[in-house]
Amino acid sequence: VNDSCSVTIHKNGKRFNLSPNIIHNLDELNLKGKIKSITKTRFTIIENVEEPTTYEFVSREEQKFNKNGNLFKIDSYNWLGGETKTSWRCKSYELQPKIAMTRYVDKEIHWKNIFKYDIEGNLIVTDAYGLNGTFQGRDIYKYNYDDNIKENGNGLPYKMISEYASGLTSMVTIFKYDDYGNMIEEYVEFLDPFHNQPSSFLTRIYEYDKFDKNNNWIRRIEYHNGKAKEVKERIIKYYN
To answer: N or C, which end of the chain is more exposed by having fewer CB within 10 Å?
Structure first.
């Protein structure tokens, strides 16, 4: 067991590490350069007809990578009447294509995710566990290698199927990307758990307007059903 978000798998007699970029958040797909840390800050967009648009702080998260490109620590802060620190710690398994991430709030375990991969290094399943190790649900990722970009052996998922702990489907998400692998659209279909029929829909559109010298995005605007809802900014530091 290793204390980093990385796992080594064997393929055709060769060993290679899975990319850590997809294990925590789809935002980190296709990062370029030797990443040292990423600090992400989220703001809600507040629109008022009589006043200029304002931005309200929602959360901040810092991810840290070692020189091998492996994610090893995540700290996040949310403003809830005060600043609450949440930390993620990782465990990887040398002989199994999976990674465990455990979430701590004030040093107590609150959540645990198990990420499972196929032999190509693609994330295929995320299992979520709550307090006392209770299974909460599962996300299943689907790939279309003809239509999606592949980098470092990892493809981009075009669909995510989310399931309740009971196994019933809660929602289906379809992803679209630009030519650089940045996600530009999520179409979410929420299902009625009793009849397995669509109950509501949501389309998220992502617009990127700032990039750094390595062509990684550092500012993104998110729209829900055509309305601007959120801004996310990233500060990315690199190893020399």
So the answer is: C
Query: Could you please report the per-residue DSSP string of 22-86?
Result: TTT-GGGTT--S-EEEEEEEEEEEEEETTEEEEEEEEEEEEEEE-TTS-EEEEEEEEESSSEEEE
What would the two tokens of residue 53 be?
């648009």
Q: Per-residue DSSP letters for 147-160?
A: TS-EETTEE-EEEE
CA torsion angle 29 33 38 44 (round to 10): -50
Confidence of residue 5 (pLDDT cuts 50, 70, 90): low
Confirm if 5 and 90 have CB atoms less than 8 A apart: yes
CA distance 165 to 171: 13
26-40, 105-119, 168-182 — most confident range: 168-182
Residue among 203, 154, 213 at smallest CA distance from 181: 154
Report pLDDT for 151: 46
